[in-house]
Specification:
Oligomer: heterodimer
Distance between the termini of chain B: 54 Å
Order of helices and strands of chain B: HHHHHHHHHHHHHHHHHHHHHHHHHHHHH
Mean pLDDT of chain B: 81
CATH superfamily of the largest domain in chain A: Gamma-adaptin ear (GAE) domain
Distance between the termini of chain A: 105 Å
Structural class of chain B: mainly alpha
Number of helices of chain A: 4
Strand content of chain A: over 45%
Mean pLDDT of chain A: 89
Helix content of chain B: 55-70%
CATH class of the largest domain in chain A: Mainly Beta
CATH topology of the largest domain in chain A: Immunoglobulin-like
Largest interface: A-B, 74 and 97 residues
Largest sheet of chain A: 6 strands, mixed
Number of strands of chain A: 31
Strand content of chain B: under 5%
Radius of gyration of chain A: 35 Å
Shape of chain A: elongated
CATH architecture of the largest domain in chain A: Sandwich
Radius of gyration of chain B: 26 Å
Number of domains of chain A: 3
Low-confidence stretches of chain B: 1-8, 14-107
Helix content of chain A: under 10%
Largest sheet of chain B: none
């Protein structure tokens, strides 16, 4: 062994959080054969808690006894102890601690050298490092000192650490008709034990305002008070991103705004062991708006059967030239148009918009889709069909139906 | 009265236990055995008549059970006679007998309350059949019988002594004075002496010897034998001690024949000739709880949760029966108001105890939701020890990493505080600091607590742990060593020893010598120590 040739020894212990020990309660009634002996033994056990002796929720700190996994985003802490094994004093002791990851070497500690170390005394170093890479890490501890005969001695010890991935984050985007973006984020616990999600927040790009949809009206989390994520389970978060006004008015940049933001996740496990992860920039699929875009802007939810109603649409020219359009209203089942079909619209300048108003009468009750609007670009001879502009629910007005009888 | 208000675990701890449970050890010794022969010749209680109206009295009825006990062969006759058992195992009969017989008048009431249990339907049918059949014609099916036997092949040795011999030499081992099974009287009293001394392995050995007298010793598993409250108490003690010494697999295997303690031969009414009209479970409630918890120790916590919820359901049924004006098992019977409230207190206490066991089980499988739900229910109960429970809830939050939740609980616990020492709050704050990585702050809180309770081993230990995380290994070792030297009997505890061994391992190659010194201390002060610790000391 290398260390045996040296006057100093080095030991390393990983400092994960202690656990709370408690005895396993074995109790009996005083009428049972052991009388109160088992109860007394339990009560006198220093790991039992006065008043709740029969509960295994302890308060006695127990140092980590088994190796615990380390996960990306957690803090790696270690105790490094250099101990003098000789009868005489050793001088100029320096302890250098580095961490070699797959991509880089990080210096964790290079304290000023200890001038002299008397026999049986120690040099103690505690290091903390937030791990930012997955995979093999090597902790390199190097001890340099001067032996009593003046020689400079040095030895190194290596400790291998495997950093694992703690969470699996899956995201899904929905581009809504009204230009809002919905983000569904699934956070899966892939660690070996349960974790508590202390914070899951969307740090949105400045182009969007975020509304978190993960609490109820009273501001309480919809996941309940506990919010513990058992291994392999998934918690799903939902966010609504509203493009800010400037972005909403500019279709080109709205379409180009694919950077949504980052998810910031903080979790804790045993006795507050903390981890933090930030996802990379989340990207949505850019919505394809085309040259001409027609969207409903004012549409009633409920309309009465056989009664005229109106709705408004926004027509946007998204291309570089002025377009001239013809509008056609085709017959669809259940809705009769009260408008002129085959009419020519005013020329629409590049990057400008127009509000169109439509009038129609519902002929059938129930949920009806607004369809049958066609636009013809007279220059390109290209037709745009809008068969799903929105839906109305057609109700039968009772008072009306009585009158008609 | 405070004891009225707390349907708590007072029967396990503290001084405000119900009156009839306060007997000293020697008195209990007699109760257990004397009950057997007294009730045999006892008057028949009213509710019995309903079910057992056709039970033929006297000698004839003996044959109902004797018929199949004869199958055991040889000395079946002598095991049937309770008096014989007592004399065989050498229990004293006379001295406190006067006390016991005077107790008899209130005794049946206390017995009924304590032993009450509701059998499952199959067992109930079988018990009716046993009691109503023509003598000599009822043979229960074999699978309805409980046929335990000691499985441990050899007596357990003195583990500490062996470790001392191995590490420190035979000479030191020879100096060790530990109690062995043969050093005490071969009866219950000797057994208690061993338990009191902490010589659990020796006590386990003695239970095996005593069970042999009942025909339930080594190699007897699977053979029919007769049960009595006393034999079941021996089994309870044995399995409890096996659990305490962490021989979980043996405990589980030996307890297996008892199943859920719900086979017909676990009830007094299975032996109408011996116990007259006495009703209820021959196995004590503590045994039932212990057996429910056993699978958890063998990696089957979910099974334990199921079993314990079954126990809880029956306990709640009993409480409902009492509330409805019936007696525990649901029979309509007039109970005096005092008796009813005593019974309510006993059974609500047991309800709480079962809930504690379920919480412990759920923590083993880290089902924090279940644990928190049950703890919350316990907090909401009238007269609950709020401060202690809220503090436990806070620590539970810390364990799972919910720091803000823990803070809320600790604050509520402080508001509900009943004791004025402040130790509880200081310890809670210390733990909270640790969860926030503020080990130095944690140390200060524990130090303040230690000023209030200088001999508290837990606080000293926690100070030591904080010192280590702050980079002060030497000081940490000093604190733990001082805890041991000032209070060796209590401080030579498994967890503290594990901590100290870990620190010794860190310190130097001389840690081995220091561990041997610890072993010497254990040998001096402890009758027994967990194998894991001993292995750590000479490993």
């Amino acid at each position: 062994m290398e260390s045996e040739e040296h006057l100093l020894t080095l030991k390393v212990m990983r400092l994960t959080r202690p656990t709370l020990a408690s005895p396993f309660p074995v109790t009996c009634d005083s009428k049972d054969l052991p009388g109160n002996l088992l109860n007394n033994a339990l009560q006198q056990d220093p790991t039992s808690v006065e008043g709740t002796e029969t509960l295994c929720v302890g308060q006695f700190l127990l140092l980590p006894q088994n190796p615990v996994n380390i996960y990306l985003g957690e803090t790696f802490s270690s105790y490094i102890c250099v101990y003098s094994e000789t009868e005489t004093a050793v001088t100029n002791i320096s302890v250098k601690v580095d961490l070699q990851t797959i991509s880089q070497r990080i210096s964790l500690s290079s304290n000023p050298p200890t001038a002299t170390l008397p026999p049986e005394k120690t040099v103690d170093v505690v290091i903390h490092h937030e791990v930012k890479e997955i995979g093999t890490h090597i902790l390199i501890c190097e001890v340099t000192y001067q032996s009593p005969n003046g020689n400079t001695m040095s030895f190194r010890k290596f400790f291998k650490i495997m950093v694992m991935k703690p969470l699996d984050v899956k995201t899904k985007f929905y581009n809504a008709e009204n230009d809002d973006v919905y983000l569904e984020a699934q956070v899966q616990n892939i660690t070996a034990g349960p974790i508590y999600l202390e914070k899951v927040a969307l740090d949105a790009s400045h182009l969007f305002d975020v509304v978190s949809l993960n609490s109820n009206r009273d501001g309480k989390s919809i996941f309940g008070a506990t919010a513990v994520l058992q291994p392999q389970t998934i918690c799903q978060f939902l966010y609504c991103l509203v493009p800010n006004e400037k972005l909403a008015s500019d279709l080109k940049s709205l379409s180009g705004a694919t950077n949504i933001g980052k998810l910031d996740i903080v979790w804790r496990s045993n006795l507050g062991e903390r981890g933090r992860l930030q996802t990379s920039q989340l990207q949505r699929m850019s919505p394809e708006y085309g040259d001409i875009r027609l969207t409903a802007v004012e549409l009633p939810n409920f309309v009465s059967l056989e009664e005229l109603f109106t709705f408004k649409c926004k027509l946007i020219n998204n291309c570089e030239r002025t377009v001239e359009l013809m509008i056609y209203l085709e017959n669809v089942e259940g809705i009769a148009w009260c408008d002129i079909s085959g009419r020519k619209l005013e020329p629409l300048l590049p990057m400008s918009h127009l509000i169109l108003e439509f009038r129609c009468i519902p002929l059938l009750p129930g949920l009806r889709t607004i369809a049958g609007i066609k636009l013809l670009d007279t220059f390109l001879k290209r037709t745009y069909t809008y068969d799903e502009l929105g839906q109305v629910f057609v109700i039968v007005d009772k008072t009306e139906s009585i009158k008609s009888m | 009265m405070s004891e009225e208000a707390t349907p708590s675990l007072s029967q396990y701890f503290g001084s405000n236990a119900p009156k009839e449970d306060q007997f000293d050890l020697t008195q209990q010794l007699n109760n257990l055995t004397v009950d057997d022969n007294q009730t045999a010749s006892n008057k028949i209680e009213p509710e019995v008549c309903r079910i057992f109206s056709e039970t033929p009295p006297g000698v004839q009825s003996k044959y109902t059970t004797e018929a199949f006990f004869d199958l055991i062969g040889t000395n079946a006759r002598s095991t049937v006679e309770p008096n014989d058992i007592i004399s065989t195992i050498g229990l004293p009969v006379s001295p406190e007998e006067s006390y016991s017989s005077s107790r008899l008048i209130v005794g049946t009431e206390a017995d009924r309350r304590r032993d009450a249990w509701i059998p499952c339907e199959k067992t109930r049918q079988c018990l009716i059949a046993a009691a109503t059949a023509t003598p000599g014609t009822y043979f229960p099916q074999r699978e309805l019988l409980t046929m335990p036997g000691v499985l441990l092949e050899e007596e357990l040795g003195d583990a500490v002594g062996e470790a001392v011999a191995l590490c420190l030499g035979e000479a030191e081992a020879a100096q060790r004075r530990a109690l062995h099974a043969g050093d005490v009287t071969q009866d219950e009293r000797g057994l208690r002496e061993l338990v009191q001394a902490g010589a659990y392995r020796a006590a386990i050995n003695l239970t095996a010897r005593l069970l042999t007298i009942y025909g339930q010793g080594r190699g007897r598993a699977g053979h029919p034998s007769k049960h009595s409250p006393h034999s079941l108490q021996l089994w309870f003690t044995r399995i409890a001690l096996l659990v305490k010494t962490k021989f979980f697999n043996i405990a589980s295997a030996e307890a297996e024949p008892f199943a859920n303690l719900d086979k017909p031969d676990m009830y007094f009414q299975f032996y109408p000739d011996m116990y007259g009209g006495r009703l209820g479970s021959m196995a004590s409630f503590s045994f039932r709880l212990l057996i429910g918890e056993l699978p958890m120790h063998c990696g089957k916590a979910k099974e334990s949760i199921t079993r314990l919820f079954n126990v809880l359901a029956t306990v709640r049924q009993i409480i409902d029966n009492l509330k409805r004006g019936q007696c525990e098992n649901g029979n309509p019977m007039e109970l005096a108001d005092g008796d009813r409230s005593d019974s309510m207190r006993l059974w609500t206490g047991r309800e709480v105890r079962v809930m504690h066991s379920i919480i412990n089980c759920s923590l083993v499988v880290k089902d924090y939701e279940l644990a928190m739900d049950l703890l919350g229910q316990l907090c909401d109960r009238e007269g609950a020890p709020k401060q202690a429970l809220l503090s436990a809830l806070g620590r539970l939050h810390l364990q799972m990493g919910n720091i803000s939740g823990a803070e809320v609980c600790f604050k509520e616990a402080e508001e509900a505080k009943t004791s004025s020492t402040g130790v509880r709050e200081l310890v809670d704050r210390g733990l909270l600091s640790i969860a926030q990585s503020a080990f130095d702050d944690g140390y200060v809180y524990f130090q303040r607590a230690s000023h209030l309770e200088p001999t508290n081993v837990m606080i000293l230990n926690n100070m030591g742990v904080c010192l280590l995380y702050g980079g002060h290994l030497k000081e940490a070792i000093q604190v733990l060593e001082s805890a041991i030297s000032s209070n060796p009997v209590h401080a030579l505890n498994e967890s503290l020893l594990l901590n100290l061994c870990t620190l010794y391992d860190m310190e130097s190659s001389k840690g081995r010598m220091k561990k041997f010194a610890l072993l010497r201390q254990i040998s001096r002060y402890q009758a027994d120590a967990p194998t894991m610790i001993l292995e750590k000391l000479y490993g």
